[in-house]
Specification:
Length: 127
């Protein structure tokens, strides 16, 4: 029997309602589920983004050490879209770790959410 295809990403966060507001503003999608310990957003791509309060994660783990070790990738059409998103996210007050930069895989910038999770916007290098 083949394994099921993953379509759910969980981020461990300090405050799920605050993180849900952050991602609702950023992505334009309201949570489909919200409680003090968990929030869930259904994204247009089909990905389900779960925001779990790190001190309630079971089984218990060092969830705080995980922030910044993962990235959410946001592919866009071209460099102009990368630059436009960078301007928008800067205006929203996101911390920018890497300004728009050309890399081997394409044109990109990296920001963080309030819990330190990396958010990478990129226009893939043309084939």
């Amino acid at each position: 029997m083949p394994s099921p295809a993953p379509n759910f990403l969980l981020l461990y966060v300090a405050d799920p309602p605050a993180s849900a507001r952050f991602y609702e503003t950023l992505l334009g999608q309201p949570p489909v589920e919200a409680s003090p310990t968990f929030a869930l957003l259904a994204l247009e791509s089909g990905l389900m983004l779960g925001l779990w309060r790190r001190d309630t994660v079971q089984p218990v783990c060092d969830a705080a050490a995980q922030a910044g070790r993962h990235e959410l990738g946001f592919p866009v059409a071209d460099e102009a879209a990368v630059n436009a998103c960078h301007r928008h996210w800067t205006a929203l007050g996101l911390a920018i770790l890497q300004p728009p930069t050309r890399m081997d895989f394409g044109f990109t910038f990296t920001a963080t959410d309030p819990d330190g999770h990396r958010l990478r916007v990129f226009a893939p290098q043309p084939a």
